[in-house]
């Protein structure tokens, strides 16, 4: 069973920082890509960033320079470092695994989501 466990959310004032983590045992061995999405209340879900086990990554323009995605292969964990946070970054953030090989091929797996609230 594929499990994604997110942590690191919470409340912060504008200009502050948070680091989100998504741990998925098997992420590295199955050569997956991991995405972060966010959904603000009343809005559609938005893709934020992606990284694969080879280290390739991509980030939406609206957060470039403020959000950085990285991974720890040994821990099967992907991090989303969020800096210079703005109230408009307030959302439920979720991680998703897809594009895997091995026994996870063709699967799409989501974490439970974690709330980030940025106050002005």
Task: List the defining traits of the structure above.
mainly beta, elongated, single chain, 7-stranded mixed sheet, 48% strand, 4-stranded antiparallel sheet
Task: Describe the structure concisely for a colleague.
The protein has 120 residues and is mainly β. 0% of the residues lie in helices and 48% in strands.
Helix and strand arrangement:
Layout: E1 5-7, E2 10-13, E3 18-23, E4 33-39, E5 46-52, E6 57-59, E7 67-72, E8 77-82, E9 91-98, E10 109-110, E11 114-119
Parallel strand pairs: 2-11
Antiparallel strand pairs: 1-3, 3-8, 4-5, 4-9, 5-6, 7-8, 9-10, 9-11
Secondary structure: number of strands? 11
Instruction: Report strand %.
Output: over 45%
Question: What percent of the residues sit in helical stretches (DSSP H or I)?
Answer: under 10%
Order of helices and strands: EEEEEEEEEEE
Termini Cα gap: 40 Å
Total count of helical runs of at least 4 residues: 0
- Largest sheet composition: 7 strands, mixed
Structural class: mainly beta
The best one-word shape is: elongated
Integer average pLDDT: 96
Oligomeric state of the chains? single chain
Low-confidence stretches: none
Q: What integer value in Å does the Rg equal?
A: 14 Å
What does this entry look like structurally?
The protein has strands at 5-7, 10-13, 18-23, 33-39, 46-52, 57-59, 67-72, 77-82, 91-98, 109-110, 114-119. By secondary structure, the chain is mainly β. Strand 5 and strand 6 form a beta hairpin. It starts with a strand and ends with a strand. The model has no long low-confidence stretch (mean pLDDT 96).
């Amino acid at each position: 069973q594929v499990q994604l466990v997110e942590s690191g959310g919470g409340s912060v004032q504008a200009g502050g920082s948070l680091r989100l983590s998504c741990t998925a045992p098997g992420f590295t061995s199955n050569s997956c890509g991991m995405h972060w999405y966010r959904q603000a209340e009343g809005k559609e879900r938005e893709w934020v960033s992606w990284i694969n086990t080879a280290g390739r990554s991509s980030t939406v323009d609206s957060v470039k320079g403020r959000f950085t995605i990285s991974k720890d292969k040994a821990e099967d964990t992907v991090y989303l470092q969020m800096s210079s946070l703005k109230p408009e970054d307030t959302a439920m953030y979720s991680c998703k695994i897809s594009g895997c090989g091995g026994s996870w091929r063709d699967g799409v797996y989501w974490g439970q989501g974690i709330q980030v609230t940025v106050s002005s």
